[in-house]
Amino acid sequence: MSYQPKHSQLEDMIAILSGAFIVAQGVYFLQQAGLLTGGTTGLALLVAQFTDLSFGTLYFLMNVPFYIMGWHRFGTQFALRSVFVGAMVSLIVDHISHVFTIGWLQPLYCGLIGGLLMGVGMLMIFRHNASLGGFNVMALFCQDKFGIRAGNVQMTIDIAILLASFFFVSPWLLACSVIGAFVLNLVLTMNHRPDRYVVCY
Q1: SS3 of residue 46 by DSSP
Q2: Rounded to two decimals, what is the model's pTM?
Q3: Is 152 left (phi over 0), alpha (psi -120 to 50) or beta?
Q4: 115, 147, 162, 191: most buried, per Cβ within 10 A?
Q5: CA–CA distance, 30 with 177 (Å, rounded to integer)
């Protein structure tokens, strides 16, 4: 007999809050270095450079259609948790400068640490039946429906978005952004494998 261990509601909320906080730190590192990433996060970072709207506002609005998609495919609980995560990331990134500021950072380091933090945070969020919205929902859908690892789907989408950003950032910043996206998706590909966490007895 096999089963998938369940987390308590308290465990879920602590993990989701922690994941959102860690993701927001990663986004902030990318933002401070002028780097991009894939998905709606990358689109929001890019568009925020050309509008008066903040990253958080753009990020949340871009994710609304995907929250609806998540609700239809994965249920109300998943959708509500994902909306909560998206709102938390938006708020933290927009207001983190009130807590600390960064004077200077090497872009390559920002790409590495930003991608790593976002990957770890997203992993925590995925494990507790939620997502960041955006293409994460599509990646989870593909894993659930077709057995394609979420990390592989996310990596393909992210690379496509980064390549499309070629005309908006310098080659060096683009290279650092690609490295960050690769690290993020490597964390997910290596660790987000539900089959490893089924207990048999």
Answers
A1: helix
A2: 0.83
A3: alpha
A4: 115
A5: 8
